[in-house]
Each structure stands twice: as structure tokens, then as C-alpha cells.
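B., you asked whether I could sanity-check this one before it goes into the benchmark set. Here's the sequence:
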Amino acid sequence: MAHILIIEDDEVVRKLLRRILELDGHEVTVAENGKIGVELFRSHGSDLVISDIIMPEMDGVETILNIRSDCPNAKIIAISGGGPKVGASTCLTLSKLVGAVTTLQKPVRRYEIITAVNNLLREA
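And here's what the prediction gave me:
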């Protein structure tokens, strides 16, 4: 199917997304923060990126901006549950403004992620 890069600092969410996407037939690479995610994207590329927004090292907004500067047509899904100072809807609105194609609020359900991924991949 496709090679998907998941950039997510929460290990449980990262593993869950990986399992869902691998069971759907995709090859998955994971990164625990935006800095590592951007490095992996630059060195290995991917057909689609799923990025959390609130992360250490490099947040999702900066991550999306870096990926967009390298690949203006990148397919990016932003996910967020918000944080103590900013809500999920604000994070997702901002991520859309900087280049996320699709946004999903945590907790993300299996069918939501599969549908979003398949819709973006079909747009190729």
C-alpha cells in the first residue's frame, strides 16, 4: 500500500496508530517528536505523514512547516487532543493554516484514521 510516517510523542497512541495502519496493509515508520520526524521524512520520505501537534523538541506546527518547505505537496494529517493551555480545536485550526490537509481530534477512532488515510492516498 503506502509508506506512512507517524510523528507522535505519546507511546501508546504511536503504537496504536502503527498497529491500525499496518493491519490495513501500510508500511509504517514512527518518530517520537517532530525533530526526529522531519529527519526521517528528509532521509526516507513517505507517502503520507500523521503528526501530533503538541510535542517536545519540535511541535507539530513547526514540523508541518518544515515538511511543507521540503515537499509542498506532502499529504499531512494533523492530530491533537489539545493541552493544558490550548484546546484541540485551536491546535487543529492552526495546523490546517500551516499546511495540514486533514485534521482529527484525539481520541482518534480506527475508522476515522483509516478513512482519512485512504481519502488522502486516493487523491494522488
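One thing to flag: The mean pLDDT is 96. Otherwise nothing jumped out at me.
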